Amino acid sequence: MNERRGGYRRGEPREMHPATCSDCGVETTVPFKPTEGRPVYCRECYQKHKPARERRF
Predict the structure, then answer these.
(1) How far apart are CA 53 and CA 34, in angstroms?
(2) Is the CB of residue 12 less than 8 Å from the CB of residue 19?
């Protein structure tokens, strides 16, 4: 079988779920089912909250 658990296959659209941004309150959609008690951010607010990536040289 070619199914991946929890992911999506190339070429197929992701299932999007409605959510409310925990920071600014805007209605948005996310590619996962939001979990109660965990914050969800819109694209703009996510950029402010995402962890800084460690640079590798």
Answers:
(1) 24
(2) no
As given in the structure block, the two tokens for residue 6 are 């929890």
What's the angle, vertex CA 31, arms to CA 15 and CA 29, rounded to 5? 95
Structure tokens given for 8 = 């999506």
Half-sphere exposure of 33 (CA within 13 A, CB side): 2
Terminal-residue alpha carbon distance, the chain:
39
Radius of gyration over alpha carbons of the chain, in Å? 14
Element (H, E) at 45: helix 43-49
Per-residue pLDDT of the chain (57 residues; tens, 9 = 90+): 444 555 556 777 889 999 999 999 999 999 999 999 999 999 999 999 888 887 777
